Amino acid sequence: MMLVITYDVNTTTTAGQKRLRKVAKLCERYGMRVQNSVFEVLVDSAQLVILKTELAHVIDSKQDSIRFYRLGNSYEHKIDTMGKEPLIQAGGPLLL
């Protein structure tokens, strides 16, 4: 399933800046950054449980927030973009 993950991490402290980097690195392991705090992630149900558990251990739930938007399996027809397109489309083939 395709997810859009957005997050807002309080970065007014050094600890918050570390949390922000950790959240971004976790999301990068599962998907592609499409904007500063927005990722498109293609995962199955088990991977989603693991990702949420890992993120829960990183954030400060009193100061930070993460939102998960499920686009489902037919996500290709649910994403419209304007302006700069990413170099790689989520779920598409990656040629090296």
- Unreliable stretches (pLDDT < 50, length at least 5) are none
The assigned CATH architecture is 2-Layer Sandwich
Give the overall shape, derived from the CA principal axes.
Answer: globular
Helix content: 25-40%
Q: Total domains, how many? A: 1
**Per CATH, what is the topology?**
Alpha-Beta Plaits
The N- to C-terminal Cα distance equals: 24 Å
Q: Biggest sheet, open or closed, and with what strands and sense?
A: 4 strands, antiparallel
Features:
96 residues; alpha+beta; Alpha-Beta Plaits; four-stranded antiparallel beta sheet; 2 helices; 4 strands; 32% helix
Plain-language structure description:
The structure is a single chain. The chain is α+β, with helices and mostly antiparallel strands. It has a single domain, classed as Alpha-Beta Plaits. Helix content is 32%, strand content 26%. It has two helices and four strands. It has helices at residues 14-30, 45-58, and strands spanning 2-8, 31-35, 38-42, 65-72. It has a four-stranded antiparallel sheet, with helices on one face. Strand 2 (31-35) and strand 3 (38-42) form a beta hairpin. Helix 1 runs antiparallel to helix 2 (45-58). The mean pLDDT is 86.
